[in-house]
Amino acid sequence: VQLVESGGGLVQPGGSLRLSCAASGFTFSSYVMGWFRQAPGKEREFVSNIDWIGITILYADSVKGRFTISRDNAKNTLYLQMNSLKPEDTGVYYCAVGSRTRGVGRSLGEYTYWGRGTQVTVSS
After folding, report:
1. How far apart are CA 38 and CA 16, in angstroms?
2. Is residue 102 scored above 90 in pLDDT?
3. What pLDDT score does 86 carry?
4. How many CB atoms lie within 10 A of CB 8?
């Protein structure tokens, strides 16, 4: 299994970024996929997840209304569109494979594989 995140960078407050996660080595369309983030000195936290077909989506309260998760099963790729970025969104963003097709929640233990992450820095 390989998960490769991309699209991170430095952006000013109020700006936007689109993260991608290219997946390989497993049947991408059969699993919930998630995004997590980790700020310096803090624990990794849930951001969003999406079920295998893109119908059931969860967001952390802190990103609801600003971030949009999506997936393209034909391209084996997961996305995270991030708008109205705030300094508190700064951190390393990781994509992860859920343990099953649906019904996966916010806990790290429900995810089986992780990417290496991409850095997002929101600063003026």
Report:
1. 18
2. no
3. 98
4. 19
> 53: which residues sit within 8 A by CB, 6+ positions away?
none
Three-class DSSP labels, the chain: CEEEEECCEEECCCCCEEEEEEEECCCHHHCCEEEEEECCCCCCEEEEEECCCCCCEEECCCCCCCEEEEEECCCCEEEEEECCCCHHHCEEEEEEEECCCCCCCCCHHHEEEECCCEEEEECC
The answer to whether residues 113 and 3 touch, using CB atoms and an 8 Å cutoff, is yes
Cα gap 81→68, rounded to integer Å = 5
Provide the pLDDT for residue 46.
Answer: 98
Q: Say which residue the tokens 């989506």 belong to.
A: 57
